[in-house]
Amino acid sequence: MKRIIAPSFLAADFLNLGKEVEMVNNSAGEWLHMDIMDGHFVPNLSFGIPILEHIRKATKKICDVHLMITAPEKYIEAFAKAGADNLTIHIEASPNLHRSIQHIHSLNMKAGVALNPHTPIDFLQDIIEDIDIVLLMSVNPGFGGQTFIEHTLIKIKQLSQLIHDKGLHTLIEIDGGISLHNAKAVFDAGANVLVAGTSVFKAKNPQQAIIDLLNA
């Protein structure tokens, strides 16, 4: 089964962003994960389109953009122009989800749907065949450095079964509280992509930390 580590730039040193991107460029991490927060859908502000534009110029790796914002449909084209390869929007913030997924695909991006910890897997039944990625939040969204919610392992297994039953190849991405203590259990439950912020960027050797997570 495909394993991918996506270092989360929410935990990066923004005074040395170029060096942080270069570190990931030379690592086993295949995706660069960027959490975009608006202070409304989640109780925090992060970074926006200009940061993505600069990171895009500095890397050939997959720019994995996670919109934790209200009305994400308004910004799909802007993030496509800024260089997103994957664009993930929240099911809780998207009243016209199918239309938004179509729009993302029309701009040659992979489309992802994110679920907050309280949102059941069943909510994906009518959209799963149209998307490339499901991102399960394993913490309450808004802040880095939180503790992994153990119930997420059950949700991963439920989602993996749904994908299997429909004969799909949808990637399962997990975001929040990922560390060496739980990476193996998360992969074993059926996840393909682990978003890792603190456990990578705060490690003494971030590149080795990525390898250790991949081999957990």
Regarding quaternary structure, what we see is single chain
Q: Quote the beta fraction.
A: 15-25%
Q: How would you sum up the global shape? A: globular
SSE order: EHEHEHEHEEHEHEHH
- CATH topology title: TIM Barrel
Mean pLDDT: 95
> Unreliable runs, pLDDT <50, ≥5 residues?
none
User: How does the helix and strand content classify structurally?
Assistant: alpha/beta
Could you say what the CATH architecture is?
Answer: Alpha-Beta Barrel
| Discrete helix count | 8
Query: What radius of gyration results from the CA coordinates?
Result: 16 Å
Structurally, the number of domains stands at 1
Strand order of the largest sheet: 1-8-7-6-5-4-3-2
Strand elements, count? 8
CA(first)-CA(last) distance: 14 Å
Largest sheet: 8 strands, parallel
Which bin fits the share of residues in helices? 25-40%
Identify the CATH homologous superfamily.
Aldolase class I
**CATH C-level:** Alpha Beta
